[in-house]
């Protein structure tokens, strides 16, 4: 007997949903036709020098029309000079000045720590991992690298000879102070 009321309630719900759908379809279609009047024709004018439809240029495509495919740019070469670059913005993680092809960095092993761990940095003449990498989320120091800082490539990237995508006028604070001292009497 209980199922009988459930079946009736379900059937009434489906019937009501179909009725609402039909009413919305009918009234929506008639009102949308009524709305299409002179307002639809009032579209923003197209500039005279604009390319024909389908020929617009996307700024990120570097002048290649959207309906065409550009040849890919050449692959950037990894710089392997072991020379630190200046940072491009404040608090930027240092970039990696050497190739890291075939470095294993996973949950079982981190090849970066062979040279950059605090114990081995002097032996390999590599900069040691920052003390911030040994802190947990509560700023408590740990004996080993924090799991939040274990995967180096999340923040640190190799240096390449790739052309920058955008111009960068960043000057670090030391440069600004030196310029101010030279400019003031």
UniProtKB/TrEMBL annotation:
Localization (cell): Periplasm
Alphabetical keyword list: Electron transport, Heme, Iron, Metal-binding, Periplasm, Signal, Transport
One term of GO molecular function: metal ion binding
Main location: periplasm
Keyword Electron transport: yes
Pfam family name, one: NapB
Known role: Electron transfer subunit of the periplasmic nitrate reductase complex NapAB. Receives electrons from the membrane-anchored tetraheme c-type NapC protein and transfers these to NapA subunit, thus allowing electron flow between membrane and periplasm. Essential for periplasmic nitrate reduction with nitrate as the terminal electron acceptor.
Family as reported in the entry's similarity comment: Belongs to the NapB family.
Name the record gives this protein: Periplasmic nitrate reductase, electron transfer subunit
Organism in which the protein naturally occurs: Pseudoxanthomonas indica
């Amino acid at each position: 007997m209980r199922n009988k009321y459930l079946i009736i309630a379900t059937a009434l719900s489906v019937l009501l949903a179909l009725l609402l759908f039909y009413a919305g379809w009918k009234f929506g279609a008639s009102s949308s036709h009524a709305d299409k009047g002179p307002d639809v024709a009032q579209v923003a004018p197209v500039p005279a020098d604009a390319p024909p439809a389908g020929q617009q240029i996307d700024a990120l495509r570097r002048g290649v029309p959207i309906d065409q495919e550009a040849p890919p740019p050449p692959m950037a070469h990894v710089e392997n000079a072991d020379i630190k670059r200046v940072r491009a913005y404040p608090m930027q993680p240092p970039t990696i000045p050497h190739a890291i092809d075939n470095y294993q960095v996973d949950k079982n092993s981190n090849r970066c720590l062979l040279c950059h761990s605090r114990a081995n940095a002097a032996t390999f003449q590599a900069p040691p991992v920052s003390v911030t990498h040994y802190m947990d989320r509560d700023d408590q120091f740990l004996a080993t690298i924090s799991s939040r800082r274990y995967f180096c490539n999340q923040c640190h990237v190799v240096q390449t000879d790739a052309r920058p995508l955008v111009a960068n006028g960043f000057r670090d604070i030391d440069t600004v102070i030196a310029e101010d001292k030279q400019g003031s009497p």
